[in-house]
Design goal:
homodimer, alpha+beta, Ribosomal Protein S5, domain 2, Alpha-Beta Plaits, 7-stranded mixed beta sheet, 4-stranded antiparallel beta sheet, 12 strands, 27% strand, globular
Chain lengths: 311, 311
């Protein structure tokens, strides 16, 4: 029997889609995240005793909470003879496009895993976290879950038998993040998408996806710059983000390799070389300001360790 | 002034699309190819004096011939003060799905380049070859041109400013090729494609494309096997190839990592590990035979040098 009966895990925020990998790509944003503390209790079932932080107004009924649902899925699948009590500390605003619901689910399963007798692999934890996040997204996706759990830039292939692959990011690349103080529902952002992709857009987007991945594996900054452009999703969603076109153009003019919407938005991210990251950040913040949008902003390194037990 | 006034170049056949990279991916098949001999002549213009080999019945008017058109494009763009006389030796049957028209265009520009005073880079030659192949395909594509010119497995990003990237293929992987004795027009095979891709298919195909490329870069055979599956194009075209479903199922049952249509077809290719390649070949040939389709068949290594001057 595990000697640890209580554990706290941190799971980072994440940028899903990354312009050219809708529903399959994502990278972790280690600068902010959610924390979940899990304590074993003798009775089966999951109880959420506290939710605090930037978004405390979340469902406490475990079935309706992404973190609660993820732990319920774990407990049921493993037929555990005990239950979990949990506290959630939100560091990621919901509706920000930064994978807040995914991070809570990931933190829950990582903390829960730490109090199991036989810890599971990360790929097994992924499946439980995906079941948790389905509460928020309406269906199972791994594009926020995988980077939050594994860290860095990752692609996920498959849903029922997901395979997660870490893609190396050139060391001189930074992500610039601008989080507008607006709320966007993932469901709403999904519902405005057309059900089809034009064949020509499909070809362009796949060329960009392939070029982007090859560029990352071979440190080919020119190829990353030529490829980091979304021709399918961005134009359908950008109207939900005031000033998006100006922000993006300014970021590119300041030297960004690419600039697009983080997940369902409204957060906007850019990739930039280290020596132009500050200028890109200034350009993005200034142009959001021109549209009366206040933002939080960060410059981050993309390679990071992913979710981990912190206490 | 170049001391060489006559040169012969070989350009290999190629498999375009590679299941998951429609219009952007391709790999060279060095076992067969076209040869073009180019001789400088004092007068401007291009003259085709001979066409021989497996498909001698091709247009001799240079504007209507992929090789002729490619050299014309080169001569015009560079404003050359001389012309070219050329002989074409076809090793690749047209309408086989093996990039025959692309190979002729590539061989022409590589041979032509050898008699220039200032040889061009391969990426410059690519643009002229693409103009040549547009005669056959109806529009510019690089998915056969690039592998024929560069060799190995390559992705092409962009049309007006194409970038070509070589993707390493795990050394234990072989391609198994089965070329049915049938003719399929690229134009016909393109015309039956739907103009749109369903969003869910788009997501699956991009996941497969990303997984395939990551698998190649990291020698992850399991990921290549999970990813080498076309969910967009194959089902729309397979009716043009008698027995395709049986051939594919038999190849997979014999251990293939994946099996799909080469370019517009009717040639079918599979990827397999070296130790199962023979069984995969037998399975494919046998199942084409059950449908009364005779085939030529090869097992090839995928990494190869691309087009080159041979005399």
């Amino acid at each position: 029997m595990s000697s640890v009966h209580k554990a706290t895990a941190f799971a980072p925020a994440s940028v899903a889609n990354v312009a050219i990998g809708f529903d399959i790509l994502g990278f972790a944003v280690d600068e902010l995240g959610d924390k979940v503390t899990v304590t074993r209790k003798p009775e089966r079932g999951v109880t959420i005793t506290d939710i605090s932080g930037v978004d405390a107004d979340l469902p406490k009924k475990p079935e309706d909470n992404t973190a609660g649902r993820a732990l319920l899925a774990m407990a049921q699948e493993l037929d555990l003879p005990f239950g979990f009590e949990m506290q959630i500390e939100k560091g990621i605003p919901l509706g920000s496009g930064l994978g807040g619901s995914a991070a809570s689910a990931v933190a829950a399963v990582v903390a829960g895993n730490a109090v199991l007798e036989q810890p599971l692999s990360r790929i097994e934890l992924l499946k439980f976290a995906m079941q948790g996040e389905a509460v928020a997204a309406g269906s199972r996706h791994a594009d926020n879950i995988s980077p939050s759990l594994f860290g860095g830039l990752v692609v996920t292939v498959g849903i029922d038998h997901p395979r997660v692959k870490h893609i190396p990011v050139p060391g001189q690349v930074r992500a610039v993040m601008a989080h507008p103080h607006l709320f966007l529902s993932t469901r709403q952002a999904r519902s405005i998408l057309r059900p089809n992709v034009a064949m020509s857009d499909f070809i362009w987007q796949t060329a960009h996806l392939a070029g982007f991945i090859c560029g990352c594996y071979t440190n080919d900054i020119d190829l990353i710059r030529a490829s980091l452009e979304d021709v399918v999703i961005q134009d359908q969603r950008k109207s939900l983000i005031p000033g998006f076109d100006d922000v993006r153009q300014a970021a590119l003019a300041a030297g960004a390799l690419g600039c697009s919407i983080s997940g369902a938005g409204p957060t906007v991210f850019a990739w930039a070389l280290q020596d132009s990251a500050l200028a890109v950040r200034e350009a993005m913040v200034k142009n959001f300001g021109r549209h009366d949008v206040k933002v939080d902003d960060w410059i981050i390194e993309i390679n990071s360790p992913g979710a981990r037990v912190v206490a």
